[in-house]
Amino acid sequence: MEIDLIFDRLWREYAALNPSARKIKALFSADGEEILNDHVAFRTINDSRINIDVLAGIFLKNNYEKKGEYHFKQKKLYACHFEHRTEPSAPKVFISELLLDKCSGFLRETMTGWADQIPPEVLGSDEIIFAGNSWYIPSFRMYERLREESEYAAWLYVYGFRANHFTIGIDSFKTCNTIGKVNSFLKEHGFVLHEIGGEIKGAPADLLEQSSTLADNIDIPFLEGVHSIPACYYEFAKRYAGPDGRIYSGFLEKSADKIFESTNFRGKS
Ligand code: NI
After folding, report:
1. Does the reported pTM lie above 0.90?
2. Ligand 1: distance of its center to the CA of 139 in Å?
3. Residue 222 belongs to domain spanning
4. 269 lies in some domain
């Protein structure tokens, strides 16, 4: 599978689920900006059937390699990022996993039970990154219990395997050529930004600045009926060259730690 096809398919499913992402991309395009895909992110658990290495399979087969590792102690997450070996403009891939051995017995058993139910044809397939949650209907009560301990686990339990976010790399933007300008543009158009940790995460000295929208609330059919909960968010990144003259291609733990919270549940509905 060509990498463009992989990202096109991920985008189609992500855009179908998240109307704001579609609108934001269209707004920047209408403004004459070139939309470059900086990275796409996935979530999973450190169960050997579905861990980072499993989700990375399709990318490794398409000439990607593991580059950076990240630790999020408080959220009990570990993550890696992957880059294409020869195409620097190819989107980076960021995959995180929840470390079940560091979680409560309840969370560990629930998420292992969730993994037990994944159909074998999904488990054994490179296409697992497109699998979503098509084989079950989640319970809202379980979503609420999970998020008492881990918003990350609650999101994964409901949405399964899909792009958690796409990220526009704004380095080639002509008008909105700073993250601050991107943020103002989005707010002028009525979008809500993720403010925890500041609207702009990182600084030029870190070689990476990021911001993100708050995930859209969408109606999910749960076993107990329809509830509106956050889906996916859209992220924006500006990268800078380091002392070696190369554009920084990694990620910042401190920024990513906060950006994970873009999918936190925000209220009853
Ligand atoms: Ni990201």
Report:
1. yes
2. 27
3. 3-263
4. no
